Amino acid sequence: MKNWYLIKTKTRQESTAVINLENQEYITYCPIVKINKKNVVLFPGYIFIYLDKNNENWSPIRSTKGVINFVRFGSNYAQVPEHIIEYIRVNQANSEEKLKKLSKFKKGDKVQITDGVFKNCIAIFKSYKSEERIILLMKVLGQQQAINIKQELLVAL
Predict the structure, then answer these.
(1) What is the pLDDT of residues 133-148, one digit of tens each?
(2) Model-level pTM greater than 0.85?
(3) How many C-beta atoms lie closer than 10 Å to residue 100's C-beta?
(4) Nearest CA-CA partner of 121 in 88, 84, 74, 153
């Protein structure tokens, strides 16, 4: 019975590993999204491979260009359930949209706060803190202070 397994790749060589494994007729999957006309790997340093544990020869995989080794937990290979692979495939487009939104603001951009105690105040974008929060620089009492605010409360100027 075939299952999905996780492979650790050399740094930035996911596509090399995929090409070389597919040349050996293995089925692979490397989730990639296009952000600002650039392909971005969703799981840097990892790819998935579909193998039959009993009937396929696994030894060439470890010596394939771009591959470091299988991910293991003790002596067990890391299996990835089929429903997880399907979930990743279905949500690949959603991930692309979320990543595009994350790159909405660049360091130094002027933004306006649309709600809350700082409503209509102008601030400077500093960095992303999490998926939903942003750190801004704002003059408060004559000094520049870092504030943490929800991303949805901002508009770019």
Answers:
(1) 889 999 888 889 999 9
(2) no
(3) 13
(4) 153
